[in-house]
Design a protein that fits this description.
Blueprint lengths: L3 H12 L2 H12 L4 E4 L1 H8 L6 E5 L3 H9 L5 E5 L4 E6 L2 E7 L1 E4 L8 E4 L3 H6 L8 E5 L3 E4 L3 H7 L1 E2 L5 H7 L2 H13 L2 E2 L1 H10 L8 H12 L5 H10 L1 H5 L2 H4 L13 H18 L11 H9 L4 H4 L1 E3 L2 E3 L3 H15 L4 H13 L4 H5 L4 H11 L3 H10 L6 H25 L10 H8 L5 H17 L4 H14 L2
Parallel strand pairs: 2-5, 10-11
Antiparallel strand pairs: 1-2, 1-8, 3-4, 4-5, 6-7, 8-9, 12-13
Helix pairs in contact: 1-3, 7-9, 8-10, 8-11, 14-15, 14-21, 15-18, 17-18, 20-22, 20-24, 24-25
Length: 477
């Protein structure tokens, strides 16, 4: 963490920007308090990049709207029921929320919002002390009502008031604690963690969409593992992702040095390392949450498929079962269809390569591997490599060399055959013209035959494809 002087310089730079200075001056002239609050203040004090500008004010939403209409042509209600108005001011997107206090009723998924009158009352109701910080503008006065600066220095996650009251007000804060533990590398204090255990069942009143968004933010952290461990240890994961804690009781197929849960966390970390290593130069480091979720969940089919056979443990078809479980769970969390499909496909295919490590595939098998992976091939490369966590150095090196080989063969075949877009050498129109048949199921069967021919033998040329198609058609009677 930078020195206090450096942190205040960072805050002063934000306050002196054209957009912020204009807002502060305008709200002050209208007789209202105005402050930069929460995450931006926290990140500036930590020396982290400030990407979002969140403000709070004593002005009520209608007053805020009227003030913003005077300085911006682009103003909208981001959540009027929650007292939040947004605007574009000199190119900066800003969110301004009226001082407030909100309480969840026992049976409600939405908070009842009441407005407060002082910055101190507003800060006390916030989630954690490190976010209960405000920089009053334009006077540049730092307001810290609950020791937030001390907690930042100590790397602590603590609620401003009692954690029981905080998590009763908004149970999603428990997930936010796990996310901040990963994002900032902070420790959740004992009483706060104990309250997470006690109030974990209360997460049921939170909408699936809000839980999903918080989980995705956690998975986007540089190292999501500390937060994931916290979710599992406190019982929060049982509430929305029970397949994950279920892995703790399932020994891996070696049955020696770690359970499937620890293996999955290792795979996740290794996948993130490979994701960063393989990112093309010049591409923004956007976290690949599809890859990360697939890595975390790739073995969730093991508990349901565990069998004890001949003194050992097997998990036959856990890839297929895991893909179905992941698809069901992610749909319940309201993930978009595309993400659900991609995660499930990666889980379904994550074991395919290990047959190659035992016996080198034919060109036909390599083509099918690429065809089946489709757009997920680059992710599948990473997941499959990350899935090697054995402590047997010789075995690990053998698997690494085998995957180096298959990637090399894919590149060679792709250059020779445009492997990424494997198609029959005759399309549907050509099939109908050649065989003299109308559109219908028979055209589809012919197309599938030619596709299998293409996968098995590669490019054989249009003339040979026509001859083989005629012979196949004759056999159909």
């Amino acid at each position: 963490m930078p020195s206090l002087a450096e942190s205040m310089d960072a805050l002063r730079t934000i306050a002196e920007s054209r957009a912020v200075a204009t807002l502060a001056k305008t709200f002050h002239a209208a007789g209202h308090e105005f402050a930069l609050v929460g995450g931006p203040v926290r990140d500036a004090l930590l020396g982290r990049e400030v990407t979002d500008l969140d403000f709070t004010t004593s002005a009520r939403p209608d007053e805020t709207r009227a003030i913003l209409d005077g300085i911006s042509k682009n103003v909208w209600d981001l959540g009027r029921d929650f007292g939040t108005i947004a605007a574009k001011v000199y190119g900066e997107t800003v969110e301004i929320t009226t001082y407030r206090a909100e309480i969840y009723r026992d049976d409600s998924r939405k908070p009842e919002v009441t407005y407060g009158d002082t910055i101190e009352d507003d800060l006390v109701r916030r989630d954690f002390t490190m976010n209960a910080l405000a920089l009053m503008l334009p006077e540049l006065r730092l307001v810290d009502v609950s020791g937030g600066v001390e907690d930042l220095l100590a790397g602590r996650i603590r609620t401003p008031g009692s954690p029981e009251s905080s998590f009763t007000d908004d149970p999603l804060r428990m997930l936010r604690a796990a996310r901040f533990a990963s994002q900032l590398g902070f420790e959740v204090v004992a009483d706060t963690q104990a309250a997470m255990v006690e109030f974990a069942p209360r997460l049921e009143i939170i909408s699936a969409e809000r839980i999903r968004d918080e989980f995705v933010k956690l998975m986007a952290a540089d190292d999501p593992v500390p937060g994931i461990r916290l979710l599992v240890d406190t019982g929060l994961a049982d509430q929305f992702l029970p397949e994950l804690p279920a892995l703790k009781a399932t020994q891996d197929d070696h049955g020696r040095h770690k359970d499937v849960y620890e293996h999955s966390l290792t795979v996740l970390r290794q996948a993130i390392e490979l994701e960063n290593e393989r990112r093309p130069e010049g591409v923004d480091p956007e976290p690949d949450t599809v890859l990360r979720i697939a890595s975390l969940l790739h073995d969730i089919g093991k508990p349901a498929t565990r069998r004890f056979e001949r003194g050992g443990v097997t998990f036959h078809h856990h890839d297929v079962v895991g893909a179905k479980l992941a698809k069901k769970r992610l749909r319940e969390l309201r993930f978009d269809n595309d993400s659900v499909k991609r995660v499930a496909r990666l889980i379904e295919l994550h074991l395919r390569f290990f047959g190659y490590s035992d016996q080198q595939w034919s060109d036909s098998a390599v083509r099918r591997y690429v065809r089946d992976a489709g757009e997920e091939l680059a992710r599948l490369h990473i997941l499959t490599r990350a899935d090697v966590t054995t402590r047997n150095r010789r075995k690990a090196e053998r698997l690494e060399h085998a995957y180096d080989d298959i990637e090399h063969r894919i590149v060679e075949l792709s250059e020779a055959e445009e492997l990424a877009a494997v198609r029959p050498e005759l399309d549907g129109e050509q099939i109908m013209a050649l065989l003299g048949i109308p559109p219908g199921p028979l055209v589809g069967k012919a197309y599938k035959y030619l596709l299998e021919l293409r996968l098995d033998e590669g490019i054989i040329g249009a003339d040979a494809a026509e001859a083989r198609l005629r012979a196949w058609y004759a056999e159909q009677g």
